[in-house]
Amino acid sequence: MTNKARYAAAVDTAISKLHEEGRYRTFIDIERRKGNFPNAVWTKPDGSEKNITVWCGNDYLGMGQHPVVLAAMQEALEATGAGSGGTRNISGTTVYHKRLEAELADLHRKEAALVFTSAYIANDATLSTLPKLLPGLIIYSDSLNHASMIEGVRRNGGAKRIFRHNDVEHLREMLEADDPAAPKLIAFESIYSMDGDFGPIEAICDLADEFDALTYIDEVHAVGMYGPRGAGVAERDGLMGRLDIINGTLAKAYGVMGGYIAASAKMCDAIRSYAPGFIFTTSLPPAVAAGAAASVRHLKTDQALRDKQQLHARILKTRLKAMGLPIIDHGSHIVPVMVGDPVHTKQLSDMLLEDFGIYVQPINFPTVPRGTERLRFTPSPVHSPDMLDGLVRAMDSLWSQCALNRQELSA
Predict the structure, then answer these.
(1) Which positions are annotated as active-site residues?
(2) Where do the domains of the chain lie?
(3) Does the structural domain 66-300 have CATH classification 3.40.640.10?
(4) pTM attached to this predicted model
(5) What is the pLDDT of residue 252?
(6) Where do the H-state alpha helices sit in 212-250?
(7) How confident is the model at residue 399 (pLDDT cuts 50, 70, 90)?
(8) How high is the pLDDT of residue 405?
């Protein structure tokens, strides 16, 4: 067998393993229709079309369809054209990028913000660059941090400690065991998106003060969603000023694309100057930056949209619980329904799509641990009562059809 044949066989084996374990991921070809989200059109493998409702999107507030956002993008597109034409250092910094960063710095009450092409890149680039700026840095990372944070910590070349998820006492033990003089940073999230649970922000900030450590928080699933201006859980809890670096996204609640950090002016300048993930990447198209800035600006004042989203999440959780479906409820806007088997999860997803026009993607390993496979619903303010009714009825029917266990409501 030639080397090329061996390569092909190895690739085939890797793909076959995913099929055998029931966790091969299939792309669903959908087309969102302007002004009609969360409705979309699914193009089936045979080329036919079916109207569906999207229940697993990260456009949490429907801002990807909001007239304010679309108008800003159209105006910038007509004024500047399609792309930025370069990296931020070489012709790719426009007035639209600067306006967006100013909006984000104001949002988080920080001196500055730095925009990246995604929150993944923002996490990876920042966390992998910090040890260059702070020699001997030890990063303490929550065990359930996002893959982008894990990757940034893994390849930064510095020391790392992994503390048990949301376990402040375990974090304390690690901090106490290290050299008091060593520079330290604690990296964690405000909302962990698979279970929808909250990080203990205040307790971690207290430890950071006690052990003279920097704090780095990922608010990706919270920006736009929580706090009086949509700055996240830290704003809601009055803790934003105690956090040194805040990471957020423009691709979820803000409905556009991109990621960022907000921090001191010197920290943003240092990351801008040293992070390869920033230096060598073409900047966001001006139209995207304009749309993101408009979305951030709008959500600083649109509390009604946040309230409606939270109401719909509470209604869905209450109704699913009443039917005995095993949901995880930590009080956030995310509604995970536990299945616990990759094959069953995929079957439920397929039946919801084909039989009921409900699109929810199965979530399996490595996104979640084996045995905790789930359907993850993200109700939005633009899901109607009829849509909620249809989803609840469909889940009730399929849970019975597939003979899955139900839970009794605790008193």
Answers:
(1) 252
(2) 27-54+303-409, 66-300
(3) yes
(4) 0.94
(5) 98
(6) 233-236
(7) confident
(8) 72
